[in-house]
Amino acid sequence: MSNVTDERVRKFLEKDSGITFSAFPREGIMVRQSQARTDEPKNRIKIYRVGKGALATCIPHFQATIESVIREMDMWELFSPIGLAELQRAISTDADKTLAIGFDYTMTDLSQLQFDFDSVSVKPVKSKRLSDTPPPEMELQLPMIKQKKIEAFVIYQNDEKVSVSDVVWRTRRVIEIGVATNERYRSRGFATSVVAFAARWILQRGAVAHYGVEVDNIPSIRIARRLGFNLTWQTICA
User: Where do the H-state alpha helices sit in 33-181?
Assistant: First the structure.
């Protein structure tokens, strides 16, 4: 994982965690209650592994639980099968609190984007829903789990949507990309194309392209790596 040196990314992490970036541990693990966490799925607990340190944020209900699990673990154990197993066991009394583990990739400059736009045989179409104007400030201030996805670029085959990228303005300077492809049209490069077009659109606006993916979604991870995204941090959430 790369060090977080881009100020735009640091501000994003501050918003997402509810903790100032200067308070993130440079080494070891820290547990903090956070107002960014709410009693909703995938937002009750969120642990960030950044560089050599990890910050665990949570609602008050889970602070003692997390502290008891990680008391004798280092960061590497926490993000290993044993750490995940112990965390899952500790929260298993709450049925819907299944852990999700993710890689978070970023791209901060257009020169990083590795894609030949001129060689694309089926070019994505920019969605009419995608505006070059950021959402109102009121929407940008919403908790991240309440922010809306916007359809970005679409590939059609026989008038059918077969691959779609979407974007979410997380902040004015960090925009997240998501992608979905019809199962019948996978492994044809369509997902890579719609993500590449979305990333270029974001970077041309001076923003950071953020691409989050669960660690077992190998095809999606390959898209990020193929296009030149950098693995910047890792998360565990419940």
Answer: 60-70, 75-78, 81-91, 137-140
